[in-house]
Amino acid sequence: MKQLLVDKSSGDSIKVKISNIVFGSEDKIIISGPCSVEDYENMIKIARKLKRLGVHMIRGGAFKPRTSPYDFQGLQEEGLKILKQVGCEVQLPVVTEIMDTRDIEMVSGYSDMLQVGSRNMYNYSLLKELGRSKVPVLLKRGMSATLSEWLYAAEYILSFGNPNVVLCERGIRTFETYTRNTLDLNSVAVLKQKYRLPVIVDPSHGTGMKELVPNMCLASIAAGADGLIIESHINPDNAVSDARQTISISSLEKIISKVNKLKEIY
Ligand code: PEP
Ligand code: MN
Question: Please, are residues 110 and 80 in contact by the beta-carbon 8 Å criterion?
Answer without folding.
Answer: yes
